[in-house]
Amino acid sequence: MPLYGWNGKILRINLTKKSVKIQEVDRDVLAKFVGGRGLAAWILWNEIKPGTDPLSPDNKLVFMAGPLTGLPLPSSGKIVVASKSPLTHGYGDGNVGTKFSVSLRKAGYDGIVIEGKAKKPVYIFIENEKVEIKSAEHLWGLDTFETEDKLESETGKGFGIVEIGPAGENLVKYAVVMSEKGRAGGRPGMGAVMGSKNLKAIVAHGDREIPLFDKESLVKKGAEGYSKIKQSDAYDFWMRQGTTGVLRWCQEASVLPTYNFREGVFDEYEGITGEVLEKLKQFTKGCPNCNMICGHNVRFKVDEGEFITELDYENVAMLGSNIGIGDLNKVSYLNLLADKFGVDTISVGSAIGFAMELSERGIIKDKIEWGDYKKAAELIKDITYKKTKLGKMLAEGIEFTAKKLGKGSESFAMHVKGLPISAYDCHAAPGMALAYGTSPIGAHHKDAWIIMREIKQYERHAYNKEKVETLVWLQNLRGGLFETLTTCRLPWIEVGYPYEEYYDLFYFATGMKISYEFIQELTNRIYSLIRAFWVREYKAEGKKWLRGYDIPPARWFKEPLTKGPEKGAKLDYDNYNKMLSWYYELRGWNENGIPTKETLEKLGLPEVADVLWK
Fold first, then answer.
1. pTM
2. What is the CATH number of domain 240-421?
C-alpha cells in the first residue's frame, strides 16, 4: 500500500563517521506520532542514552517536518528542531518557519537525525538524493546574516538554509538555530547542540513531488483556506502590526513584563507599541505558503548606524519593557545583535533583566542600570563571546547564575525548569502561570497562550478546573495538532481560521481520517513521552523528579504588583497547586507529575512504562 503525505524517509548523518544513511520510517510509527514534535520526541527517547551530556557527540539533533509541511495550504512552512537541552537537561525543541522545511521535504525527506561530532567545522549539503558533508571552516566565526549570504553565493538562492551564529559556536546554552535573517527556533539551546557538533549550517534543495492521497481536493481546500484568512475581520490589523499588536493590550491588562517581571505595566510603553512599529516598517516577510505574514521588518536609527531588523512581540517586550527600554529604535538594535549572533531574544532579554536587578541589589559589582541600552548591547556581546565573568555566567543560563550567586537571587530568576519565561507577567494570571509551569520544554507560551481567554472570558483571578480544562485543550491543539502536522498555529489563533479545517487537509494529504479525539490521544501520548524523558534524564543525573519543577518562580507568589490596574495582585500558592493537581489528573499523571504506568500503557507506550516504573 503506498504511503501518502509523508515521504517516509529520514536522513541519518553521523558527523564522526562522515556517514549518510536513509532510514525508512515504519507506517505504524507515523500513525502513532504523525511528525514534527511527535517523531522527534520518539527518536530522542529511544536513541539517547539516559544521562547523556547534551553537548557531547552522543546527543542527537533532530530536524523533523510533518505530513502537511511544504504543501499548498495555509502556513505550512514550519519544521521542528529538537534535542536534549543543554540549558534544561530535559527535552528541548522549537519550530522555525523557513524555506529549508519545504526544501527538505521536496528533496524527499521528512527529517534529519544528526549524531556524532565533526573534527572541524562542516555544513551539510542536500540536493535530492545528493547529500554531502562539506567544510565550513571559511564560515566559522561569521554571524548568521554573513553565513546565509556566503552560502547563497556558493549554492544559489533557491536553497533553504538553517545555521548557527557565534553564540552556537561558543556553546551559549540558549543559542538558537537561525534562518532567513530573523527566523529562530530552539530556545532551549538547539543552536548550542549544533555548535557542539561543529555543524555550522544545513543547506537543502529539492524538486520532487510529495506523494498525496487526493491532490486535487487538497489544493482546492488549501485555496479556500487562503481566501478565508484574507476575509477575516482581524486580517487587516494583523497585517499592519502582527504580534506586536498585543503589546498595548498587555499594558492595559497589566501583564506586560517590566523590570524583570517585577511589574505588569511600563511607564514608557508608548515608545514600543505596534503603532510605532508601523511607522518604522519597511517591508514584511513571511514563511513559505503563508498569506498572513508576521515578519515585520523595521528600519531604525541608533548611534551605531541605520539598520533593518525583523520584530515580533516577544523580542520587543523582553528587550524593551522587561529591561526598562521604551524606545523601539534601541530595542531593534538589541534584537538585531541577538539575531546576528544566534542567541535567543527571549532568554537574553531575561538574562539582561536579571543582571540589571542583580546590579541594583548589589549582588554583583557590575553597574548595569535599568534602561541602559549601551550596557545591554555590550552584555549581549559578552554573553555571546563569554568575554567577561558575568557574560560567562549568564551564558550558562539564569538558573545556573542564580544558584552560583545565591543571596536570594533564585526567587527572581524568572524561569521554569531552567528555561526563561517568555513575555507575559502572571502576577494576575494564574491560568497562564500554569501554562508556563506545564509547558513541555520549560516556560514558553507556544503550547498554550491562555492569557487572553483567561482575562476576557473568565474571572481572571479565579483558580478553577474550567481554566485547566481549557489549558489542556489549547495544549492539545497548539502543542499537539500544529506541532506534529507541522504547520503554523497563527491562522487559527490570530484570524480565526478553524483548526478543524486541518482534519480535512490531513485526510487529503495522507488518506487518514482524524478528529479531536485522535488529537487528544496523540497529544497525551507525546506529552507523557516528553515528561517521561524529563523524569528519566533527571534520575540519570542524580535528581529526583518533584512537582515543584512545575511551579513558577517565587516572585509571582510573594511580591505583589505595586502599580497599574492590578496593583496588589499576586498568585496564591495553594490554589495554584490545586490547579496543578487537576492538570495532572487530566493528563493521567500522578501527584508528582509523572505519567502513571496505566496511562503509558493505555497510550500505547508499554516500553516507556517499563523504563519509568521498573
1. 0.98
2. 1.10.569.10
